[in-house]
Design a protein that fits this description.
The complex is a heterodimer of chains A (about 400) and B (about 80).
Chain A lengths: L5 H14 L1 H4 L1 E12 L5 E6 L4 E6 L1 H6 L9 E11 L4 E11 L1 H19 L16 E6 L4 H11 L5 E6 L7 H13 L5 E6 L13 H9 L4 E5 L7 H5 L2 E3 L2 H8 L3 H35 L3 H46 L2 H6 L4 E4 L17 E6 L2 E6 L8 H7 L1
Parallel strand pairs in A: 3-5, 6-7, 6-8, 8-9, 9-10
Antiparallel strand pairs in A: 1-2, 1-4, 2-3, 4-5, 11-12, 12-13
Helix pairs in contact in A: 5-9, 6-7
Chain B lengths: L12 H17 L4 H23 L5 E7 L2 E6 L4
Antiparallel strand pairs in B: 1-2
Classes of the chains: A alpha/beta (about 400), B alpha+beta (about 80).
Chain lengths: ~400, ~80
Amino acid sequence: MGIYTVSQLNEYIKQVLTQDPQLGQVWVRGEISNLTKHSSGHYYFTLKDKGAQISCVSFRMTNRTLKFEPEASMKVLVFGTVDVYTVRGQYQLRVLDMRPDGIGELYKAYEQVRNRLEGEGLFEVVHKKKLPRFPSKVGVVTSPTGAAVHDIIHVLKRRFPVDILLSPAIVQGENSAKSIVRALEHLNRTDVDLIIVGRGGGSLEDMWSFNEEIVARAIFDSKVPIISAVGHETDYTIADFVADARAPTPSAAAEIAVPEKSDLKKHVLSLISRMQQSAMHSISENRNQVDYLSSRIDHERFAEILRRDMQRVDELSSRIEFGLKKIIESKLSSLSGLAGRLNAVSPLNTLERGYSIALRNSDHSVVRGIDDVSPDECLDIRLIDGTVECRVTGVKPEERSIGKKRS
Amino acid sequence: MKEKKNEPGEMSFESSLEELESLVEKLEKGQLTLDESLGIFERGMKLARVCNQKLSKAERKIEVLIEENGKLKTESFIDD
């Protein structure tokens, strides 16, 4: 072996370290210190325990996938690969993934996510969607093999009839958050009108996926209303905060989701009886009104009207009678006047005085002169007391001299 | 205000029940002619019958969603 340059030595050391399969993928437990978050998005810190420390770098690409925000003095589990920074001759741990270590750290991470999402307004009441009163199809996001799905189906079967669509998800461990997100997205492409997302009880770690930001955001983004049902009575998961309703257990979620059948039956029955009562009430009210109105028709008053009218009829008829009588009388008197005048010019008076009227027998026309008759014609001579039937034997015209002689 | 009258048989449980509830309220408020009351009563009874039928409906589907090549399909789910 000759003499190395510094670069060559560091390169060699780097090769040795990076080729060791043990060091290529390693989990390390420790506490974060000297944390620097560079403006480039890369994090530099020291991971330490009581007796030792190691430099760590976490590049921006990795930081984007972390489920919590690293903070100084946080206890973490780092998954990474041992690398050498040849510029400084420094070996370091390049972080590939990092998790909070232990319950305390989990809570810290939980607080972080909760505060951030709360700050963004994701939990606000205005965003809560109204649950349908009577869903017709309920989507369920949970493990197809867990107790939760069994409990939910069991409860729903006793209640108002609904269809159930299970969208299977892993609800625990490594890939659970992504799986829950995908299951929610799938249900949003179906015709379910309500979603229950949850799992049965477990430790905080078991339920961790329900505290993850991507799950919270998927619940927030869902167009279908969601009831969260992560099986623990007291603690809230982030999913609980962001969901439209929260149930302590999957069974309780099913009860919230769908009304009870017997309650509904009672409700419908009471509506029927209220309707019947109203209808009966309406009928009897109308009957009373008819009774009241008919009682108001006053018989005595009616009879009086009748009497008054009868009297009026009598009065009118006697006035008609009187009027008629007067008319007749006046007609009679004018008739007698006319009769007197007629009498004055009556030929009967002339006959009375001894004159007669000659009428042709054939047509009863008055004979006014000798030219009106011919010999042998029959004439009727009207006298005051009868008719003389004559025959013309001859005519002679009147001689004026005779008249002169006589005078 | 008055929506078109659907055949009660074709209505969802929810809209049947909601209409029934509003009819009962209308009846109880009075201020209707007898003919109107009886018409509402008749329709209300039809709706109530539909509600009861839907409540007694026995069959329901329990299915599981399966993704296959990016497409979703359903299969019946047997819960034991």
